[in-house]
Amino acid sequence: MTDRSIRAALISTDARFLHQFRELAHGAATGITIGLEISEPFAEFGEQQVRALRQMDPEILVIDFEDDPELGVKFTQFLSEMHPGQRVLAVGPGLSQDQLLAAMRAGVADYLNKPVDEAALQAAVGRVAQALGRTGTKAPRVCALYSFFSPKGGAGSTSVAANMAVVLHRLTGKRTLLVDLDLELGEAALLLGVQPRFTFVDMVKNFHRMDAGLLASYIEQHSSGVHLLSAPFHPERSESVDGDEIRRILHFLKQHYEYIVVDTPGSFSPTTLAAFDQSDQVFVITNIDLPSLRNIQRGLPMLKRVLPKVNDQVRLVVNRYQPEGSIALEDVERTLGLKVFGTISNDYEALIQSINAGTPIVLNGNSKYGRDIKALGARVAGMQGKGTEKGAGWVGRVIGKLRRHSEEAK
Question: By C-alpha distance, which of 220, 258, 34, 232 is closest to 144?
Answer without folding.
Answer: 258
